[in-house]
Q: What sequence folds into this?
């Protein structure tokens, strides 16, 4: 990853303070359970530890820690019964979901040999979880519940926690990185137009504006031949180039790639939306001809790069890349009515991680609908489950996620240089196009291998954005 971010997750546990002097054995029991519980969190997050809370004052101290760290998510372990005042002070000033983890230590009671301390410490599948949810609702706080058991391990609990942590990573990525807008959207594609100030207020994503003149000169100072050669080899390792590829053939492309990587690091860029509508002459023509593969190399390293200046699909690509490891720009191409299949794809930059075989690169004399010509890249998405995500807005500027799952199937695809895939949807191609279009997306969406609607819904919960699921 060129720009690294790590979600910050606030973690604490609660128990009723009145129990502890009555049953002293609970203190070491709860301490051990809490330490074990924290091992369930993936190493991909930074844990902000609020400790075991048994009083209102301790809860306030945990809340101070969480606010100071600007946490992306709070995970609460309910050790036994506790009143909601153990929880609320820790989260009342936060605007992130609270995940209530209701895990029992033992799989089943030994009914005849269970005393009160054992019940409270090892067998209380917490009746307090409803109390917590009720008071979070009254406080206007987003929340979720995970119930399970510790004895013998519980893969479902671990999956749910990891899923929430992946979703929280999107929030951190949007807060810590910037979106580079280079040029402006494709003229007349009004579905792509956006208010960048509204974007910052609603999605915490800051837009940095760049003129093309700056990027034409971006590689002027790149003279380190060993660095350029390294980037050239990376390009050759990533793409099969029509007519054969050599270091010399991609030398200039590699020089620009080195410059772009340096630019991304300096400006803390996590997303790029660009469109060029000039005359493609001189330096402008050189860069324009090789921009697609250069940006594809950035996508490979985690920077979402969207063509036609589409900021919203850049966000969708970044979300899927973060939670699923792949994020491919797509749009509806055609319908094969005989096979009941949607053909979905796009020209331009793509994600090597979604390709089942080595992507190809070739030179075309003209980019359809756009200025100039140059290198096109084609990727070959994996067969099997696929998830689509579009981001749109209503008339008041509120964002909405539109998502669907399908299956990519084997069969003929277009060969004119654009990435495309044959997706079957459970509702059928005709109904999918009707339902997807009626939901009001932009004409672009992002694609990722696998099924990810459950995680997308968690991301939406973190951002307070509604989700419309078209089909699964």
A:
């Amino acid at each position: 990853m060129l720009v690294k971010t790590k979600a910050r997750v606030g973690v604490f546990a609660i128990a009723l303070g009145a129990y502890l002097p009555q049953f002293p054995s609970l203190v070491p029991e709860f301490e051990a359970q809490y330490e074990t519980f924290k091992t369930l969190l993936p190493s991909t997050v930074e844990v902000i530890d609020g400790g075991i809370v048994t009083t209102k004052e301790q809860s306030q101290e945990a809340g101070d820690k969480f606010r100071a760290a600007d946490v992306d998510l709070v995970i609460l372990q309910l050790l036994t019964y506790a009143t909601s005042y153990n929880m609320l002070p820790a989260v009342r000033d936060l605007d992130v979901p609270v995940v209530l983890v209701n895990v029992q230590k033992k799989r089943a009671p030994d009914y005849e040999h269970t005393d009160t301390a054992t019940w409270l410490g090892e067998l209380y599948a917490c009746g307090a979880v409803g109390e917590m949810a009720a008071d979070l609702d009254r406080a206007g706080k987003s929340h979720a519940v995970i119930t399970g058991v510790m004895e013998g391990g519980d893969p479902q609990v671990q999956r749910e926690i990891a899923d929430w942590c992946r979703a929280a990573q999107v929030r951190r990525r949007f807060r810590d990185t910037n979106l580079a807008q280079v040029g402006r959207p494709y003229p007349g594609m009004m579905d792509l137009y956006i208010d960048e100030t509204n974007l910052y207020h609603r999605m915490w994503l800051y837009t940095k504006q760049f003129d093309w003149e700056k990027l034409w000169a971006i590689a002027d100072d790149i003279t380190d031949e060993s660095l350029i050669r390294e980037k050239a080899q990376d390009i050759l390792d990533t793409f099969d180039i029509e007519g054969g590829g050599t270091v010399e053939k991609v030398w200039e492309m590699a020089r620009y790639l080195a410059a772009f990587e340096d630019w991304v690091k300096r400006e803390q860029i996590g997303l790029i939306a660009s469109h060029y509508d000039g005359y493609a002459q001189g330096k402008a023509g050189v860069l324009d001809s090789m921009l697609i593969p250069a940006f594809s190399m950035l996508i490979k390293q985690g920077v979402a790069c969207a063509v036609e200046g589409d900021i919203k699909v850049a966000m969708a690509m970044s979300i899927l890349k973060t939670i699923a490891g792949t994020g491919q720009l797509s749009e509806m191409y055609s319908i094969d009515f005989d096979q009941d299949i949607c053909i979905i794809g796009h020209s331009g930059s793509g994600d090597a991680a979604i390709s089942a075989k080595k992507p190809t690169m070739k030179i075309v004399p003209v980019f359809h609908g756009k200025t100039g010509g140059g290198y096109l890249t084609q990727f070959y998405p994996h067969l099997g489950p696929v998830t689509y995500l579009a981001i749109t807005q209503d008339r008041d500027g509120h964002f909405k996620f539109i998502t669907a799952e399908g299956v990519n199937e084997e069969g003929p695809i277009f060969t004119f240089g654009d990435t495309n895939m044959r997706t079957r949807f459970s509702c059928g191609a005709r109904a999918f196009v009707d339902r997807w279009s009626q939901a009001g997306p932009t004409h672009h969406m992002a694609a990722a291998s696998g099924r990810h609607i459950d995680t997308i819904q968690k991301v939406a919960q973190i951002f307070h954005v509604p989700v419309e699921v078209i089909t699964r």
Summary: The longest helix spans residues 155-176. The mean pLDDT is 95. The CA atoms of residues 110 and 123 lie 10 Å apart. The chain has 15 helices and 19 strands.
